[in-house]
Amino acid sequence: MKLATFIHEGKERVGIVDGDGVIPVPGCASMEDLIRTGLPAELPHVRIPLEDVRLLAPIPRPSQDVICLGMNFADHTHEAAKFHPTLVRESHAVYFSKHVNEAVPDGGVVDSHPDVTSQVDYEAEVAVIIGRDALRVKKENARGYVFGYTILNDISAREVQTRHKQFFLGKSLDGFAPLGPWIVTADEFPFPPAIGIRCRVNGELRQDGNTSSWIYGIEDVIEELSAGMLLKAGTIISMGTPAGVGMGFQPPKFLKKGDVVICEADGIGTLTNRIG
User: Fold this and answer.
1) Is 52 exposed, middle or buried (0-12, 13-18, 19+ CB in 10 A)?
2) Domain residues for 25?
3) Are residues 111 and 12 in the same domain?
4) Would residue 60 count as lying in a domain?
């Protein structure tokens, strides 16, 4: 099932994407509300054509920072180390947060912040949406806490990221979180999922990986994080990116104004954004 947030007749709503239409879900103020309460037993016999709505990011304004994993693909770890050795950690998962005032939807423009950075980079990732409050969850039970999956482009300002000891600022400029186009529920995938993920810049294939290559899987991450913190329903965990990011090329291929970035994940869809 695909779940989307959209604008129709000036009102923000959530709904089930059904072919070339969307079925609005009544009684839900937001996607986070739907995740917490679940779908109602009965849905209205209403189907709005997708061409008549404007899709937003599935969780447009996350109530808490996105949790991100760094260096969760071995090939990306190697290219990151060549770019800047301080980016790489050893032995344990790398976690950082990404502040998101408002996620950029599919088709939206990403502000390149030329007054702040000249090294804007892309990172195609599959993000996990937590479906219910998780605390002290063991690996074998982690599957039951996954609501679904979406695509996140972890846009990064590389010189800002490497200038500071933590990644937060370089990952959190306004507009640096394209998300979407919707959430696909977990029951559409085996667990753990093996999702092919790719990124193209102006039609050039840059990244081509699969979530089966994650160093730390969803079950590892949920167990480790929930051991000491409550992961609330609706939490977004972005699971890391494969090799092929701009900083990995010689010379680096950073994004510039007008570039079109397409992130694609099998079974989820495509997330297309232009750099402004």
Assistant:
1) exposed
2) 2-55
3) no
4) no
List phi, psi (to 5°) of 74: -60, -40
Same domain, 39 and 100: no
User: What is the rounded distance in angstroms from the CA atom of residue 156 to the CA atom of residue 105?
Assistant: 17
Half-sphere exposure of 33 (CA within 13 A, CB side): 13
- pLDDT tens-digit readout, 92-148: 899 999 999 999 999 999 999 999 999 999 999 999 999 999 999 999 999 999 999
Residue type, 244: G
What are the pLDDT digits (tens) for 142-199? 999 999 999 999 999 999 999 997 899 999 999 999 999 999 999 999 999 999 999 9
pLDDT number for residue 44? 87
Strand duo 146-153 + 179-185: pairing: antiparallel
Closest Cα to residue 79, out of 257, 203, 206, 265?
A: 206
Indicate if 79 and 215 belong to the same structural domain.
yes
What's phi and psi for 182, nearest 5 deg?
Answer: -160, 180
The amino acid sitting at 61 is: R
Widest CA span in the chain? 56
> Comparing C-alpha atoms, which of 105, 122, 113 is closest to residue 269?
105
Tokens, residue 95: 């976690």
DSSP designation for 65: P
Assess whether pLDDT exceeds 70 at residue 81.
no
Q: How far apart are CA 79 and CA 252, in angstroms?
A: 11
Q: What angle do CA 203, 274, 18 make, to 5 degrees?
A: 85
At residue 67's C-alpha, the angle toward residues 64 and 73, to 5°, is 165
The CATH number of the domain holding residue 271 is: 3.90.850.10
Res 80: pLDDT? 52
Question: Is 240:70 a contact under the CB 8 Å cutoff?
Answer: yes
β-sheet bridge partners, residue 272? 262
